[in-house]
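Researcher: Next sequence.
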Amino acid sequence: MEKNFWLERWERGEIGFHQNEINPYLRQYWKELHPASKGEVFVPLCGKSRDMLWLREQGCRVLGVELSTIAAQAFFKENGYTPHRVTAGKFDHYEADGIRILCGDFFDLNKNDLAEVNAVYDRASLIALPPGMRERYARHLVSILPPATQILLITFDYPQHEMPGPPFAVSKSKVEALYKRHANVRLLAQLDALPQTPYFQERGLSGLQKSIFLLTLH
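Model: Next structure:
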């Protein structure tokens, strides 16, 4: 997807992908990460996700990256924060109470930006990208993360021809193809998610599987 696609979605308020509640799979499976994690957690394409609040409550420092200034500012405003803002390099930095959002392009991140990260939470990043960009995303992510970083990854899988993304279908085999050279890939759970997601039923899907993975970088 081009940058303008996401910027325009935020400008028009077309953010059906945003969840007001803390993701239940984050609550359930975060303990599987051996940091469980008291270091810095990276949340790519973070939007204004309230999951960042939950991660902070666990004692983690949180680092998000988000293309849309509207999303970054809304996160802090809606949660009662007045962030400190500075511009450094290619990013505007917003920070308050141990949560920092870098506003800019994910692909402009480098190893120095993520030097303190020991865990990643990816609920809405990989599935937001079409196949070609997804491969570029995974390559860049593993190239800038410290060794042994763990990634909690949540994906959807469904017959792609039944619905245009985003979110896009990402199967277990696709996750393995993207990451197996760089990480140990462990499937934590696969769940039938269609009965709990009327939005996808209304879009005509015949099936929807949610998968939760734990990736540990070599």
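Model: The chain has two domains: 1-13+36-122, 134-218. Residues 134-218 form a domain with the Rossmann fold fold (CATH 3.40.50.150).
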